[in-house]
Amino acid sequence: SLQLAFREASLVPDEPGHGPGEKYTGPVYG
């Protein structure tokens, strides 16, 4: 997904449920 692509490219890993947009989409596990 697009969100996973951004998550993988992030320089600072986010905890599940705390990444950008996850408050709208729910936790994303990548």
Summary tags:
2 helices; 30 residues; mainly alpha; 40% helix
Architecture overview:
This protein is mostly helical and 30 residues long. It has one domain. It is built from two helices and no strands. It has helices spanning 2-9, 22-25. The longest helix has 8 residues, at 2-9.
Number of domains: 1
Shape: globular
Strand content: under 5%
Mean pLDDT: 58
- Rg computed from alpha carbons, rounded to a whole number of angstroms: 8 Å
Instruction: State the distance separating the first and last CA atoms.
Output: 10 Å
DSSP summary: helix tally: 2
Biggest sheet details = none
| Helix-strand pattern | HH
Regions with pLDDT < 50 over 5+ consecutive residues? none
State the helicity in percent bands.
40-55%
Tell me the number of strands: 0
Structural class by sheet pairing and helices = mainly alpha
